[in-house]
Amino acid sequence: LMLSIIFFLVSIFIIKSLTYPSMERLIAFSDDVTKGRIDASYTPGRIIELNRLGQAIEIMVASLKQANMEIKKEIEERKRTEDILITKDIHLKTLIHTIPDLIWMKDEKGRYLFCNSKFERFFGAAEKDILGKTDYDFVDAKLADFFREQDKLAIETGKPRINEEEVIYADDGHKEVLETIKTPIYGTDGELIGVLGIARDI
Questions:
Q1: pTM score, whole prediction
Q2: pLDDT tens, 95-121?
Q3: Are the beta carbons of 126 and 120 closer than 8 angstroms?
Q4: Which is nearest to 133 in space by CA: 155, 110, 153, 156?
């Protein structure tokens, strides 16, 4: 009986001495991975099964590392694209605001979506105070009715519409006779966005 107990204890000691270091390595490696240390590597031990498990985790980490690099690259590419779009948007807005003609856009209900500096002079208001409002908020009802009628005709025909109109600028009271072109604008889905207007003093 004593011999059996000694043999059992020795067996436990041998098994522990063989498996514990391998288990310790695997646990340490797993801990590194869970903490996001994707550069961590597994050091093989004496237990083949544990080595296979460690290698499988290494393969998984390598895949995650590759995916992480691809995501980082995609984020950088999107950032570059956003920067380009922001720059182009700034250039476009600068161009629109420096053109000496009146430029504006309304939605299908006649609410202003944007306008340039020359148009601000016509209404005597800043763009931020014009957006979302209609002609009825800035000019007399007769002229506003005329503007609205021309907008609707452009929408109904689906083509640019040219007309002449005499207006008085709210900023200094001077008059101009304008040749106005109103063009319906559609999105990529074919849905109407609104009416783009360009007017020039003739």
A1: 0.59
A2: 888 888 999 999 999 999 999 999 999
A3: yes
A4: 110
